[in-house]
Specification:
Elements (H helix, E strand, L loop, with lengths): L1 E2 L6 H11 L4 E4 L6 H7 L3 E4 L6 H10 L5 E3 L5 E2 L2 H12 L5 E8 L5 E10 L6 E2 L5 E2 L5 E3 L4 E3 L9 H11 L6 H13 L3 H12 L5 H14 L3 H14 L3 H13 L3 H11 L16 H13 L3 H14 L4 H10 L1
Parallel strand pairs: 1-2, 2-3, 6-10, 6-11
Antiparallel strand pairs: 4-7, 5-11, 6-7, 8-9
Helix pairs in contact: 1-4, 6-7, 6-8, 7-8, 8-9, 9-10, 10-11, 10-12, 11-12, 12-13, 13-14
Length: 332
């Protein structure tokens, strides 16, 4: 882990780490609280590292301190339940892969879900790249295991921290890779700088990058568009890169706003079987949301039987959902 001022969150993850970790390495990048003391008291190997506005550099330094056959990275505010820690331990005992992908849940229940390269064979020499939103280009024998890591912040971070690093790169006239252009555009979007966000996200769509990132960029562009036609066009572009439920549901929403319930119905039905994902996919879009919207579509199409069916299906995902419960009363 690379950490800074994480005295609140660190004990939570260190409590379960010994279940699966032979050694726990903490690289402190300038804490002014008791982070380093807490880590040392827990038996961690603690190192200091001068912060350089470069997450990849700090993570790679941490990796170099590892001595095991495999390296697993975490953030201080990640949560691993005891049962999941035991699953990781069992996985480790039979591991032969070069890299292991695990789901990353943002929040619990998760508002976003995506996969990260989480456990790496040290002999492969994998390195993080990117000053911000650092990642590893993995290769070899890659496996996917459904053992979610939950990212749950206990303190508010600087919302412009990543944006400032990108802007520093821009001032230094650094060349941006396609991935960096995507994340720079995303940070601009999240910080409400829409004019600049449009420029960088459109630049990324014409550059190299994954289909999931390009689908996500298209969703952001749709959200920033001012007309229904432009919103639709961006979503349709995104679907050429990633046939994802998030894009189909948002497209269905636009058609519903125009009372075009038949086309909206088609979008939501397709979302239920779409098997691709954008970068920051919402679990709701893969079940609950298309069902609750189909309930409304069929209601307007005067098909109460199918309307009730989809409302009942929505309740299987969210039994206490106030919208679905309200709808249930209408069917009685």
């Amino acid at each position: 882990m690379i950490v800074k001022d994480e005295e609140l969150a660190l004990p939570r993850v260190l409590e379960v780490a010994p279940v699966f970790a032979n050694e726990t390495i903490i690289v402190d990048t300038g804490s002014t609280d008791k982070t380093a003391e807490i880590a040392a008291a827990a038996g961690c190997k603690v190192y200091s590292y001068e912060w350089r506005d470069d997450f990849a550099s700090a993570r790679n330094y941490a990796f170099k301190q590892a001595t095991g056959d495999y390296v697993m990275w975490l953030d201080a505010d990640d949560v691993i339940t005891p049962s999941r820690a035991r699953k990781i331990a069992r996985l480790k005992n039979s591991l032969s892969a070069d890299a292991v992908m695990l789901p990353y849940h943002i929040g619990d229940p998760p508002s976003l879900v995506f996969w990260r390269e989480r456990i790496l064979k040290r002999q492969m020499g994998f390195e993080f790249k990117g000053r911000v939103h650092e990642a590893i280009e993995i290769s070899g024998n890659i496996i996917y295991e459904n053992i979610p890591i939950v990212h749950d912040k206990l303190k508010r971070s600087d919302p412009e921290r990543n944006l400032k690093i990108f802007e520093k790169m821009l001032d230094e006239q650094k060349d941006f890779s396609g991935r960096e252009a995507f994340y720079f555009g995303s940070e601009l979007y999240y910080n409400g700088k829409f004019d600049s966000a449009r420029i960088w996200l459109k630049k990324f769509l014409g550059d190299t990058g994954t289909g999931s990132d390009k689908g996500q960029a298209s969703l952001f562009l749709s959200n920033m568009a001012t007309t229904a036609e432009d919103k639709r066009d961006s979503l349709k572009t995104g679907l050429t890169f990633s046939f994802a439920p998030d894009l189909l549901c948002r497209l269905g929403d636009i058609y519903m706003s125009e009372s075009n319930y038949k086309v909206a119905r088609s979008c939501f039905l397709t979302a239920l079987v779409a098997d691709e994902r954008i970068t920051f996919s919402s679990p709701d879009m893969q079940g609950y949301y298309p069902h609750i919207r189909l309930c409304s579509c069929y209601w307007h199409l005067n098909d109460k039987k199918r309307s009730k069916y989809h409302n009942d299906m929505a309740l299987t995902f969210k039994p206490n959902d106030k919208y679905a419960l309200y709808n249930s009363a209408l069917f009685e």
